[in-house]
Structure formats: structure tokens, C-alpha cells
Design brief:
The complex is a heterodimer of chains A (304) and B (273).
Chain A (H helix, E strand, L loop, with lengths): L1 E8 L7 H17 L4 E3 L14 H4 L6 H9 L4 E9 L5 E9 L2 E7 L11 H4 L8 E4 L2 E5 L8 H9 L4 E5 L15 H16 L3 E5 L4 E2 L2 E2 L5 E3 L5 E4 L6 E8 L1 H9 L8 H12 L25
Parallel strand pairs in A: 1-2, 2-3, 7-8, 8-9
Antiparallel strand pairs in A: 1-14, 3-4, 4-5, 6-7, 9-12, 10-11, 12-13
Chain B lengths: L7 H17 L5 E5 L4 H14 L4 E5 L7 H14 L2 E4 L3 H9 L6 H22 L2 E3 L5 H6 L20 H11 L3 H5 L12 H5 L3 H13 L4 H6 L4 H13 L30
Parallel strand pairs in B: 1-2, 1-4, 2-3
Helix pairs in contact in B: 1-2, 1-7, 2-7
The chains are: A alpha/beta (304), B alpha/beta (273).
């Protein structure tokens, strides 16, 4: 089955939902004209990234008019939107929503929220609590957002849950100048990850990053589609707006897994058993009971 | 051998895109920049010319009577080479007028007053010309606190603020800043004979290597000593960074409400843009 996958490497307006909805509509129209069937938008591209205290102002409940409008747009083609999701109990999530044939088919809430260095996501967002593959009309896929993929556990779970492609919306800032590299060092690291994951888990990596600047922080673009053999099928420009599309199919997954059945041979029980054992280690959080011997005369508790 | 990365092609691409994006998103198309004749302002101006078109960059030359005459000549070379617009505003009259009242003011006070006078001129010209003020302070001087608060440190956007002096020199050479400006000894030119490195007590190239490891790479004192830096130098630089932190923050506001500016009222400058 052939599928035309596209990535809209956009530069959204920070905190301006209406402007970005218009941007989405324009890009979806462009992709449809290009005969794309699945379009990936970057992380938080409906809102901008450095939202800070504006998170509540741009948040959307899944039954909102804006979501209904996006659902209608998905009759032309399937797409992934990056947005701030508000749950019925008013928690805000950094979410990726998969729209297909007029409906929301899957929502992934970003699990790993970077809160170090230049990042402050956990201040504003609630953490997602699951990693699931889902069935689209094209095949079984997973959605993981940016930092999620810096934890190998998430793609491990997605692959074992049956994903043949991982769609990764990203808002990845450029940083790290290294001599003799055409791209910044963060871009280089991501490109390495995408390729290693594609080959190691024998699946498609569809990586959609944004471009532009917010408060001096630039985003490196460089969106790409990598096949299960680690071949880069399409690559967007660094640091600039772009649109890429490629015709491909999941047959490549079958061929790779036939040659290299690493997933088949993965011992899930071993992993689970060892993780359970590791979790019981004192350093990992089972709090040792503190046996006090403050009163004179009482014997000290024996050391474990 | 500690090498600060200077990938000039990549830096140029990023910084040109930065100026273009951060100016145009405000709805404006131009910048004004104070041209001192030094390498930092030359680089900033030339990046802006590439980003916005030279007709959209105004270089303002603001000499004082005791400024090194080379400074003005060098600034004019930059204007010539880049094709940007220029404006000459001498600051001697207003500075001297003020200090006639305070004749005992030392060189430091006079220097700061000049730096702040230049700032006020740039901001006024930017308003007149519908432009943003383009900054020129580099990372080395920002970290060391070697700049005048609300003087040369003031700007709307600053393409050089994350570049060490070493990188400024490399990028300046690559982008075509006139050679005589790249190679000359850095000076704030606030009094006769002043040089940065004379005032600081070490060279930019030396301190950049230390700063790169200390700040960017987060080396501990022990790791820095093992890398060969003298302990006194390490301590001196660490102290300068700490003691100048006030220059890199907004004024300290007393918190009395539930939501205080810049503490729990947190928005991006690009909010809505």
C-alpha cells in the first residue's frame, strides 16, 4: 500500500491561535494539492512554543469549535496537530492529535517534559501517562513528542506495541556550534537518533520540526523521513520554512524485519523481570523504614 | 588545546536569520546601531545589512572630543563597505555642559555618562526612523560585566550576546569587516589610552577559553585548574561573573502581591508575534 507522507515545517505565531489555524488551513490545502495523504505538523505549532503564562489562554478542549474545525479539515487528508490540550478537569497537556476522515483518532500527551537548562515545560504542563500505538487507515503507528524520544523507553514501548511508523512532532531549538558541521550540534544528535531508532526498531521515523525564532531561540527545522533501513527518504531545509513529501509504503518494514528480526527476538519477560528487580533496589525509591534509636538505652536496629 | 568553535558559516546563517525574524515580526523593517569603529558594532551592523538590506540599517556615529580619531574613520569604513545609512551626532556639547556642574567627576563617571548619552540618542533615532535598536554587546563582556548598564548594554535585539570575543573576531573576518578593525586592540575609547585588555588585566583570548569551559561546559574549579588555568585567574573571573549579575537582570522588585512581574508574571518578549 503506497502512502504519500508530508511534513509542514512551519513558523507559527507565538500565542496566536487564530493566525496558526489559518496557517494550518493553508498548509493542509497545499498538502492536499500535492496529493499528500498524511501531513505532520510540529510540536505546539498551533500555539507556538515559548508560551509560558499564556498556556491557559491558548489551550483547547477536545470538544471546542477549533478542534471541530480541524476535524472537518481532515476530510481532505489525515494530519497531526501540535497543540495545548485542556482536560475536562483543567489540566494542560502538550499534545499531538491525529485527525483522520473527520474525526480525532488518537491523542498523545507528551510524557517527558524537559525542565532543565532553557526548558520549563513541567511548570506549565501535566505529564502524559501512557505510550500507545494506534491503528490508522494506513497502518499501526505511534505518536511521540520531541523529548519523549530522548528516552529510549518510549520508542521501545511503541515498537513492541506494534507501531510500524513513529510520527514525531518536535519543537527542537538549535544549539551547540561545532566546527565543520553544517548544522548545530542538537540537530546532529537528533539525526543520529532518528536513524538509530529507524534501523534498530525497523520502522519509519517521521520527524517534523519547526523553524523560526522565539525570544532569540531558533528552531533548527531539518525535518526528515527515515525508512527502516536507515535511509533518509526526504529532508527539509535547516532553519527555514519548508514542505517535504515522499511516496512510500510499509512493505519496507516487512522486508527489514524479515532480514533482521530483532523485535521478534526481544524477550519482554526478561525486561519486565529485571525492571521489577531494579525497582526494588533501595536507591530506587522503596523507602527504608527509619529505625530511630534516639531514646537512651534502646538498642540500635541491626544494619540491613 | 582548548578551541572555541567558530563555525562562521553556520553562525552567519543563524544570526542573519535571527535579525530578520526578530525585527520583522514586530512589524518594523529597520534597525539603528551605534557605530563605535570597533569590531563588535561593525559585525552587528553588517549582519543587519545582510538580514534587512543595507538601506534598512542606520549606523550612528557619536564621537566625543577625546575619542580616538581612528574610531570615526573606522566607523566610516564600515558604512562605506556595507552601504548602510549613517548619521553623525557629536556628544561633546551635552556631556561637557553637564560636567561643568560636576567638574570633579572622575573618568569612570564621564565614561558611563557618554555611554548612556549614546543610548538615548539611539533610542530617539529609532523612534524617529521606525526602527529597533540593535545591540552589540558580546558574551565575554556581558559575563564579565564589562559594559555600562543602560548604556551600551541597552538594545532591543542583540545578535552578538551569545558570542565570545574570539568568535566575534572570527565571524567578523569571515563576513568582511575591514581588516584594520578586526586586528586593532579593543577599546571602549571612553578615555585616552584606554584598552579593554589593559583595564581587565588579561587578554580576551585567554579569558574566552576559561569562560567557555567554566560557563558553557560547566567545569568545576578543580577541573579548570587541571586544565591549566591559574587558580587566582579562575577566582578573579568567577568573582567578576557573580558580582556583575545585577547587570544581567531587571531591577529588583519587592514582591508583595500574588503575581509579580518577571517572577510569576512570565511572558515572552515575542508574545503575540
Amino acid at each position: 500500500m503506497s502512502i504519500r507522507i508530508a511534513i509542514g515545517q512551519v513558523n507559527p505565531r507565538l500565542g496566536d491561535l487564530q493566525a496558526n489555524l489559518a496557517l494550518y488551513e493553508e498548509r493542509i490545502g497545499h498538502a492536499a494539492a500535492d496529493k499528500a495523504q498524511l501531513l505532520l505538523f510540529p510540536e505546539l505549532s498551533l500555539t507556538g512554543y515559548m508560551l509560558r503564562d499564556t498556556v491557559p489562554a491558548v489551550a483547547l478542549k477536545l470538544d471546542s469549535p477549533e478542534i471541530k474545525h480541524l476535524m472537518a479539515l481532515s476530510r481532505d487528508l489525515a494530519f497531526v496537530a501540535g497543540l495545548v490540550e485542556e482536560s475536562p478537569d483543567h489540566r494542560f497537556f502538550n499534545s499531538a492529535v491525529y485527525f483522520e476522515d473527520g474525526a480525532v483518532r488518537h491523542v498523545h500527551r507528551k510524557v517527558y517534559l524537559p525542565t532543565y537548562g532553557m526548558f520549563d515545560e513541567q511548570r506549565y504542563f501535566a505529564r502524559g501517562d501512557r505510550v500507545r500505538a494506534f491503528d490508522s487507515k494506513f497502518g499501526r503507528m505511534a505518536l511521540l513528542i520531541c523529548e519523549d524520544l530522548w528516552h529510549p523507553s518510549t520508542i521501545y514501548l511503541a515498537a513492541l506495541d506494534g507501531a510500524l511508523a513513529v510520527l514525531c512532532p518536535s519543537a527542537s531549538p538549535l544549539r551547540g556550534i561545532v566546527d565543520q558541521q553544517i548544522q548545530d550540534d542538537n540537530a546532529r544528535y537528533w539525526e543520529m537518533l532518528n536513524r538509530v531508532y529507524a534501523e534498530t526498531y525497523s520502522l519509519f521515523m517521521v520527524y517534523g520540526n519547526r523553524c523560526g525564532f522565539e525570544d532569540g531561540v531558533g528552531f533548527w527545522g531539518g525535518s526528515e523521513i527515515v525508512d527502516p533501513f536507515g535511509m533518509r527518504l526526504a529532508k527539509a531545509r535547516y532553519y527555514e520554512e519548508d514542505f517535504i513529501a515522499v511516496d512510500t509504503g510499509f512493505e519496507a518494514v516487512r522486508r527489514k524485519r524479515t532480514m533482521s528480526p530483532l523485535l521478534r527476538d526481544e524477550d519482554l519477560d526478561l525486561t519486565i523481570n529485571e525492571l521489577m528487580r531494579i525497582r526494588e533496589r533501595p536507591e530506587f525509591g522503596i523507602v527504608q523504614e527509619f529505625k530511630a534509636s534516639k531514646v537512651q538505652g534502646r538498642k540500635k536496629a541491626p544494619k540491613k | 588545546m582548548i578551541q572555541i568553535p567558530t563555525n562562521t558559516a553556520l553562525l552567519r546563517q543563524i544570526l542573519v536569520a535571527f535579525v530578520r525574524n526578530e525585527v520583522r515580526k514586530t512589524g518594523l523593517a529597520r534597525v539603528v546601531v551605534g557605530l563605535s569603529g570597533g569590531v563588535d558594532s561593525a559585525l552587528s551592523a553588517m549582519l543587519a545589512a545582510e538580514a534587512l538590506g543595507p538601506e534598512n540599517v542606520l549606523g550612528v556615529l557619536m564621537p566625543y572630543k577625546s575619542s580616538n580619531p581612528d574610531s570615526q574613520a573606522h566607523a566610516e569604513r564600515v558604512v562605506q563597505k556595507s552601504g548602510i545609512k549613517s548619521l553623525l551626532v557629536e556628544i561633546t556639547a551635552q556631556i561637557d555642559d553637564y560636567f561643568m556642574r560636576f567638574p570633579d567627576a572622575d573618568a569612570r563617571r564621564r565614561g558611563n555618562k557618554m555611554a548612556r548619552e549614546r543610548m538615548t540618542i539611539l533610542y530617539d533615532q529609532s523612534m524617529s526612523w521606525n526602527a529597533l535598536v540593535l545591540g552589540t554587546s558580546n558574551k565575554t563582556e556581558l559575563l564579565l560585566g564589562y559594559g555600562t548598564l543602560y548604556g551600551d548594554m541597552a538594545s532591543a535585539i542583540n545578535p552578538l550576546g551569545d558570542l565570545y570575543k574570539t568568535q566575534v573576531w572570527a565571524l567578523s573576518e569571515a563576513i568582511g569587516v575591514p581588516q584594520e578593525i578586526v586586528v586593532k586592540e579593543p577599546s571602549a575609547d571612553l578615555w585616552s589610552g584606554q584598552t579593554d585588555e589593559g583595564e581587565l588585566g588579561f587578554t580576551y583570548r585567554e579569558v574566552d577559553k576559561l569562560l567557555y569551559l567554566m560557563v558553557d561546559q560547566r567545569y568545576t574549579k578543580a577541573e579548570l585548574a587541571a586544565a591549566g588555568f591559574p587558580e587566582r585567574f579562575i577566582d578573579d573571573i568567577a568573582a567578576r561573573i557573580m558580582n556583575s549579575q545585577f547587570k544581567r537582570r531587571l531591577p529588583v522588585i519587592a514582591k508583595v502581591s500574588q503575581r509579580t512581574i518577571d517572577r510569576d508574571f512570565r511572558y515572552s518578549r515575542d508574545w503575540g508575534k
